[in-house]
């Protein structure tokens, strides 16, 4: 059977790889992505394996690559995407790549270090220039006059007239200036004059490059002790202190010298940045292919670490899972890769007692549906895959709850736009998680929208409004003509009834879907409740019965023929005998009860309750002759299947186990008798170890425990019998959510569009006025439709459809206890 309907056949293969060509062979297998290696060194520590040194070298290179990539991003650059199809480099190229990488990293470190030192020096010169500029402006201010030669502080008189005025100038961060000023005043007891001022222009930070303002200060004082306190205080605040000349000419000369040095430093910085851009350009060109190649090389060495070494150390032995259909391609790839070594690699299948992994190949279209199934659990090896049937049933059950032509069309167009743009790189490269979720399920959304349009036509709803595609099957004129409705009658009866028994009133069923005249009826909701509730039961029983039938293919494929008679048949009898009969009564009543007998039509619900009570209701006439006998027989038959379902499989397995055990003992007795009768010397070689060991099958037979089998079967029986009741009721969510969606659409139309239309017509009869009023109304209607009815209601219907497939459908035949085949591939490394 095809891969979509059942997982592919997977074989365990043993690979003999020549030591000289092992790296090339594994690299080629990584390019193909067809095999999953098994770890033959599970008991060996990762630090004691053969190629651990090569793996470490690759990891060290990856750390260096991370440093180079961060430097490129720090410079505001981006790495170009690597070329497609880059092969894993030969092992001899690892040393060359490592040397070039280390050289580039060292050049970047040196250039960055020099640039950092130059920027710090330039920043210091700029601060010193700002301090000298502040000192010059302070020196220019004097109380006696505008003379620049007037001293800042008048010389003291008295015994301290020989003391000399000293200056301390520097810069401090703005948030420290206030604390510094207070501490200086308290420490020096006010024997100083301090002036703080912000720099006129912000200076670039040497580390971050961000502009920042600084506070420059100029402190004048007398005495050496005061000077020592000031210097210690500024050191504690990590202030930049610079020499300050008292003479104006000296300050101007120092300022000019600082400007010249700053200009020279800017030129040197420019040269450093040009050299840095050259180095980063080489990194941009070389780093992307190196990253891909080293990741591939590391993956190859990790795969080689899972191989064992032959006794002669001439080849490596590997075991891998591979799809049987891919074995010729694997053999050809290994032959081509090992041809240069002179000895060809060998591939052959080996038996395995382990359950093989599950391999289901998917396409763009089937990937999202397979993901829904795998989210429940990966199927067992070659178990029936529910994904092909989910392609139809999931969108359909979603559409039953979401049926609306307008809403379905919007969802279909949104998904169609994603499908048409799926090959554009910008669409695939989008990093938004919500967009990636929608884009990954674009084909699922496409079918959900398409099926919603279909069920919308069945419900005859388009944004909660009925559409008239075909002529109605009801005639109001015929009812008016034959009933004699007068003007007085119409005035006194706001609600009019259409009697289908009157000739010409009911002309026949609507060609497709629900007749639009029902949207005008006051019993519209009651009619839809009855219709959708019965439709939900029919769909639910059909869906569950289909799941039970799919289990037949599992039993046939795995050779479990006894389960057909002891499990599948009782399950079908129990399900269809009770709830299949309920579906039969619904369909039978639809077909047999006409409009003339609708008033006396029997109640299906009462009949179904009486079926389990083995009773009858005198006021509820039977649907067909002999209904009571049929119902009683079905209940008895359904109850009779419960012990068969509970005890049949455990007893059969016990009988089969005993028969196989007797046959094994008989073979052992025959073998012992033959050995005793023989005069061969090999009799002495049969020791107690062989007798204790027995045959290989003994250990497997000892695993059979009747209590465990019976307990498992009891759980399955209770779950199925009770599940048939609860699961059938669970399908009523189709009715509930469909009704809720329709009512929300009706409320949104009535509260927004209907009020907007009435407001527009009330403000003026002119078309222009009404159009201006309807623009915001329609905008609000569109936003609420998308936010509530498409997103919220769509998500709700999606989750309920998911539950119906996982719990009500898949548990009838699908165990989901397998594990995926995860081939060794370089596809992820190339991205």
Automatic annotation (TrEMBL):
<dbReference type="InterPro" id="IPR002490">
    <property type="entry name" value="V-ATPase_116kDa_su"/>
</dbReference>
<feature type="transmembrane region" description="Helical">
    <location>
        <begin position="595"/>
        <end position="613"/>
    </location>
</feature>
<keyword id="KW-0472">Membrane</keyword>
<keyword id="KW-0406">Ion transport</keyword>
<feature type="transmembrane region" description="Helical">
    <location>
        <begin position="734"/>
        <end position="757"/>
    </location>
</feature>
<feature type="transmembrane region" description="Helical">
    <location>
        <begin position="537"/>
        <end position="556"/>
    </location>
</feature>
<feature type="coiled-coil region">
    <location>
        <begin position="244"/>
        <end position="275"/>
    </location>
</feature>
<feature type="transmembrane region" description="Helical">
    <location>
        <begin position="769"/>
        <end position="792"/>
    </location>
</feature>
<dbReference type="InterPro" id="IPR026028">
    <property type="entry name" value="V-type_ATPase_116kDa_su_euka"/>
</dbReference>
<feature type="transmembrane region" description="Helical">
    <location>
        <begin position="568"/>
        <end position="588"/>
    </location>
</feature>
<feature type="coiled-coil region">
    <location>
        <begin position="94"/>
        <end position="128"/>
    </location>
</feature>
<keyword id="KW-0375">Hydrogen ion transport</keyword>
<keyword id="KW-0812">Transmembrane</keyword>
<feature type="transmembrane region" description="Helical">
    <location>
        <begin position="633"/>
        <end position="653"/>
    </location>
</feature>
<feature type="region of interest" description="Disordered">
    <location>
        <begin position="138"/>
        <end position="158"/>
    </location>
</feature>
<dbReference type="Pfam" id="PF01496">
    <property type="entry name" value="V_ATPase_I"/>
</dbReference>
<feature type="transmembrane region" description="Helical">
    <location>
        <begin position="505"/>
        <end position="525"/>
    </location>
</feature>
<comment type="function">
    <text>Essential component of the vacuolar proton pump (V-ATPase), a multimeric enzyme that catalyzes the translocation of protons across the membranes. Required for assembly and activity of the V-ATPase.</text>
</comment>
<keyword id="KW-0813">Transport</keyword>
<comment type="similarity">
    <text>Belongs to the V-ATPase 116 kDa subunit family.</text>
</comment>
<keyword id="KW-1133">Transmembrane helix</keyword>
<keyword id="KW-0175">Coiled coil</keyword>
<feature type="transmembrane region" description="Helical">
    <location>
        <begin position="396"/>
        <end position="421"/>
    </location>
</feature>
<protein>
    <recommendedName>
        <fullName>V-type proton ATPase subunit a</fullName>
    </recommendedName>
</protein>
<feature type="transmembrane region" description="Helical">
    <location>
        <begin position="442"/>
        <end position="459"/>
    </location>
</feature>
């Amino acid at each position: 059977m095809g891969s979509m309907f059942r997982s592919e056949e997977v074989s365990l293969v043993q690979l003999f790889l020549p030591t000289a060509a092992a790296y090339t062979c594994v690299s080629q297998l990584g390019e193909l992505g067809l095999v999953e290696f098994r770890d033959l060194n599970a008991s060996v520590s990762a630090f004691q394996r053969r190629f651990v040194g090569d793996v470490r070298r690759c990891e060290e290179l990856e750390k260096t690559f991370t440093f180079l990539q961060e430097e490129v991003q720090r410079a505001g650059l981006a790495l170009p995407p690597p070329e497609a199809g880059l092969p894993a480099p030969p092992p001899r190229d690892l040393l060359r790549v490592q040397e070039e990488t280390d050289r580039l990293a060292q050049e970047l470190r040196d250039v960055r270090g020099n640039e950092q030192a130059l920027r710090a020096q330039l920043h210091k010169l700029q601060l010193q220039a700002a301090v000298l500029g502040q000192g010059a402006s302070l020196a220019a201010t004097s109380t006696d006059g505008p003379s620049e030669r007037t001293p800042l502080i008048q010389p003291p008189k008295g015994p301290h007239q020989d003391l000399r005025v000293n200056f301390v100038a520097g810069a401090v961060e703005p948030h420290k200036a206030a604390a510094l000023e207070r501490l200086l005043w308290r420490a020096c007891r006010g024997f100083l004059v301090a002036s703080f001022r912000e720099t006129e222009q912000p200076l670039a930070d040497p580390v971050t490059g961000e502009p920042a303002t600084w506070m420059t200060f100029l402190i004048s004082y007398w005495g050496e002790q005061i000077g020592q306190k000031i210097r210690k205080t500024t050191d504690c605040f990590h202030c930049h202190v610079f020499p300050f000349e008292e003479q104006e000419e000296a300050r101007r000369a120092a300022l000019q010298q600082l400007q010249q040095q700053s200009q020279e430093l800017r030129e040197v910085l420019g040269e450093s940045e040009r050299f840095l851009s050259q180095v980063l350009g080489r990194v941009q060109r070389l780093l992307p292919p190196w990253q891909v190649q080293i990741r591939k090389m590391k993956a190859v060495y990790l795969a080689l670490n899972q191989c064992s070494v032959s006794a002669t150390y001439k080849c490596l032995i590997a075991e891998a899972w591979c799809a049987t259909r891919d074995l010729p391609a694997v053999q050809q790839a290994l032959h081509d890769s090992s041809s240069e070594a002179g000895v060809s690699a060998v591939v052959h299948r080996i038996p395995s007692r382990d359950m093989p992994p599950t391999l289901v190949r998917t396409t763009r279209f089937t990937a999202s549906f397979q993901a829904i199934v795998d989210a429940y659990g990966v199927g067992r090896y070659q178990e029936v895959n529910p994904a092909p049937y989910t392609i139809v049933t999931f969108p359909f059950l979603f559409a039953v709850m979401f049926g609306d032509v307008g809403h379905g069309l919007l969802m279909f167009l949104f998904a169609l736009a994603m499908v048409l743009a799926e090959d554009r790189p910008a669409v695939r490269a989008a990093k938004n998680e919500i967009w990636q979720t929608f884009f990954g399920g674009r084909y699922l959304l496409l079918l959900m929208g398409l099926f919603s349009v279909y069920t919308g036509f069945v419900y005859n709803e388009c944004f909660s409004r009925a559409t008239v595609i075909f002529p109605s099957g009801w005639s109001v004129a015929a009812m008016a003509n034959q009933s004699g409705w007068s003007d007085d009658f119409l005035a006194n009866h706001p609600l009019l009834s259409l009697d289908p028994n009157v000739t010409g009133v009911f002309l026949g069923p609507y060609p497709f879907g629900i007749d639009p005249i029902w949207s005008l009826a006051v019993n519209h909701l009651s009619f839809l409740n009855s219709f959708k509730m019965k439709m939900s039961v029919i769909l639910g029983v059909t869906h569950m019965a289909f799941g039970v039938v799919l289990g037949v293919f599992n039993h046939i494929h795995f050779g479990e023929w006894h389960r057909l008679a002891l499990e599948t048949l009782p399950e079908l009898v129990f399900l269809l005998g009770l709830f299949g009969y309920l579906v039969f009564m619904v369909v039978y009543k639809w077909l047999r009860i006409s409009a003339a007998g609708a008033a006396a039509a029997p109640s299906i619900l009462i009949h179904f309750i009486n079926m389990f009570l083995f009773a009858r209701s005198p006021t509820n006439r039977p649907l067909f002759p002999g209904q009571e006998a049929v119902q009683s027989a079905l209940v008895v038959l359904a109850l009779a299947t419960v012990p068969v379902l509970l005890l049949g499989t455990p007893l059969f397995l016990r009988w089969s186990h005993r028969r196989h055990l007797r046959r094994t003992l008989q073979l052992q007795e025959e073998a012992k008798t033959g050995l005793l009768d023989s005069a061969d010397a090999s009799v002495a070689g049969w020791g107690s170890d062989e007798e204790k060991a027995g045959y290989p099958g003994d250990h497997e037979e000892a695993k059979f425990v009747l209590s465990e089998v019976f307990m498992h079967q009891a759980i399955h029986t209770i779950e199925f019998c009770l599940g048939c009741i609860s699961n059938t009721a669970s399908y009523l969510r189709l009715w509930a959510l469909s009704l809720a969606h329709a009512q929300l659409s009706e409320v949104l139309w009535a509260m927004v569009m209907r009020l907007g239309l009435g407001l527009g017509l009330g403000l003026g009869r002119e078309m222009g006025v009404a159009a201006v009023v309807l623009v915001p109304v329609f905008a609000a209607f569109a936003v609420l439709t998308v936010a509530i009815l498409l997103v919220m209601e769509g998500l709700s219907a999606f989750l309920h459809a998911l539950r119906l497939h996982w719990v009500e459908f898949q548990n009838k035949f699908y165990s989901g206890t397998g594990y995926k085949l995860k081939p060794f591939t370089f596809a992820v490394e190339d991205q």
